[in-house]
Amino acid sequence: MSSDQSSGPVIGVIEPPVNVTLAVQKPIPGSVQDSLKAYEKDIQDELYYHGFMTRAEADTFLKKNGQFLVRRIEECDQFHFVVSVLWNNEKLHYKIKRTPRKNYFYLNKKKPKTTVPSLIRYHRYDQAPINETSKAILQHPVQRNHYAIYREQIIMGEKLGHGEFGEVFAGRLRLGFFRKVNVAVKTMKSDNKSLSMDERIQFLREANIMMQLKHKNVIRLYGVCAYEDPIWIVLEAAKGGSLLSRVKKEENPPTVRLLEKFSREVCEGMAYLEKYKIIHCDLAARNCLVNEEDVVKIADFGLSIKGILSKNVAHAKVPFKWYGPEVLINAILSASNDVWSYGVTLFEIWSRGDEPYTGIPSIQIIAGVREGTLRPQPSNDMPNSVAQIMEQALTFDYKKRPTFSELRSRFYENKKKKHFLFL
Fold it and tell me: Keywords of this protein's UniProt record, alphabetized (predicted)?
């Protein structure tokens, strides 16, 4: 069996499966990796091939006896193909071996084949056991998901900016023969040697979280290009830029009615995430986007986790100005912290983009939030109804904070009382 290891989950958190293909370090010409890279082209069109995937992640796909998939792992700077199969209620993982001269692949030595697909076809259609001990047989291929996109489907445009792991470009995505849509393409650094395996997995965290999301106030994932370096994550385009830049805009500045709409739409998007037990962990005006119609889209899921509670906030770049006291005191991350972050985001929206706690040293900010003596204050033109929601979101005791669902209901209660004007 394979000895590949999966990365451990964050304590107290149900981690999302990383179920997209991950690009690998560029092979050294003439090396074993180089020849494996060439053979990988033979398998890329096979729907049972899932690319880079850990053992734990593969296990989540194996639910019926005889189900199998092929994936790729890294061990000691070498890449290997692995067959994962469910047999007799046991999840088994076998490396596909190669002959000494690297000309053939095999699972047992009886029938080596020149390519991985031909090896899988032999074991599947001849019902030949892949291991003499377990007698496991490949019966039902687990197909990769529909988010896989080929690079040929995308027309790359101008560079829009850069992030922690690479650059962001405008683009056009072909969906069928007659339809094209505007997209934003996040690319991983082409020099993958500068990224660790954990960083590569973290780069894909956003896509893994977004695969299950579909809401008008959450940025849409179209798919992932990951069959060659660098990896691309393809997202819905939001031509209005960030919510932060929109509220700062002096040309065509937002009206009070529009600021109310922005406030409600951020809450709508976060209530949707809350429903599916996704903790964003980095809600801020900079991480919300706005489209051409001034509709807010929650974005940037790079720090997000799926689950109910986390007690591990060991991240080098935590946005502490947006974090509640329970995070700064006990490192407790929950959906309630997102609610606190929403209160800070309301401050950003209504101050037209001011940074919270401007002019206060970081150490004093952390101390003040921990002690409950410091929190953002409503702007002078913020309606009382919004100020009340902001105050509730910034409740010191995270166990007493309202949920996003409750805050959303208060928006609509205010609408009925005619305290709100909606566009």
Answer: ATP-binding, Cell membrane, Cytoplasm, Kinase, Membrane, Nucleotide-binding, SH2 domain, Transferase, Tyrosine-protein kinase
Please give the Cα distance from 360 to 416 (Å, whole number): 39
C-beta of residue 233 within 8 angstroms of C-beta of residue 186? yes
Cβ burial, residue 9 (10 Å; 0-12/13-18/19+): middle
Contact criterion met (CB below 8 Å) for 138 and 156: no
Q: What residues act catalytically?
A: 282
Distance in angstroms (rounded) separating the CA atoms of residues 300 and 287: 6
Q: Are 73 and 4 in contact (CB under 8 A)?
A: yes
Structure tokens at 238: 């939001």
Full-model pTM: 0.73
Distance of alpha carbon 331 from alpha carbon 324, whole angstroms: 10
Q: Which position has the token pair 């932060």?
A: 244
Token pair of 10, please?
């964050």
Mean pLDDT, each 10-residue run in order, the chain (423 residues): 37 33 35 50 80 84 96 79 96 94 86 93 95 95 83 91 86 84 89 63 81 94 81 93 96 95 98 96 97 96 80 66 95 93 99 97 97 96 96 97 97 70 48
Q: State which H helix or E strand residue 289 sits in.
A: strand 288-290
DSSP per residue over 157-183, as a string? Answer: EEEEEE-SSSEEEEEEEE-SSS-EEEE
Measured distance CA(269)–CA(155) in Å, rounded: 29
DSSP one-letter string for 230-261: SPEEEEE--TT-BHHHHHH-SSSPPPHHHHHH
| Contact status, residue 407 vs residue 277, Cβ threshold 8 Å | no
Whether residue 186 is annotated as binding a ligand: the answer is yes
Bin 48: left if φ > 0, else alpha if -120 < ψ < 50, else beta: alpha
